[in-house]
């Protein structure tokens, strides 16, 4: 069912010269929490239009400056240059209305990775390909100028460091020094441009492989963040769906392995250690921070809390140790 697109999106499309003065029709898309996202039917075919909302559609009053869509546009343009096909290609950005126009990724041939994972379809080569592409993007961005990205740090602090690390430190005062050290590292790192939201819900699996979306948290920073953030989703899913836990863990290991293999901007072992230390903090954040995971019940949250806190306290030195201890600590055997 098509409808008139919101006036702000139509105005943005007109300012970009993509739509004429007449009615602009399309269909709202679901799945996002921070934006109005529409399929817009233009004379030449559909495009996707995304307008950042000042207040996120989540419980609680989580506000985020709409300028984030400008950084998203910039990151997607960078990614399109560095590795065509690895991320959704931007067609235009209207800064006045914060309207980002994207190539249309037809949902009949693009599946949200999170939905595949939730259905128990854990395709290990897909995880490996995500790792390969992410490393190529980090590698390319690490070679380019970072200075122009500096102003994006503030948003990364608001959308990532505060809700994930600072809030979780408050809930776990004993672990607070660990969280503070991790937060400090992320806030000051300038190794590459990170995507900031490499979650299976922001990855579409298309005919040419995984396509990244939703780069609103892009910032200069530590590439270990993106690796840890994405692998964390797989480790949480191993607790959520115990029947497939070995496959989720295998996927996390494959993701890390291809990623680290492609990391040519710094020694891989230091990078791996940083990611393996950060991941448990992010896991604890998904139960006790400001962005709690929606699919775990109280029992599963307790399991994650116990495992993640142990790993924050006694940090693993790599993904082999991290994933082995995660399996052990979440196995349901009495501790
Ligand atoms: N270019 C696109 N083509 C088709 N669908 C898209 C496109 N971009 C986003 N979507 C759909 O909209 C959903 C939300 O997009 P996303 O960029 O993640 O927004 P949010 O910031 O609100 O999470 C995606 O999960 C996907 O289903
Ligand atoms: Mg999203």
TrEMBL record:
GO terms for molecular function: transferase activity. It comes from the Bacteria. Pfam families: APH (PF01636). Keywords: Transferase. Residues 27-256 form the Aminoglycoside phosphotransferase domain. InterPro entries: Aminoglycoside_PTrfase, Kinase-like_dom_sf. This is Aminoglycoside phosphotransferase family protein.
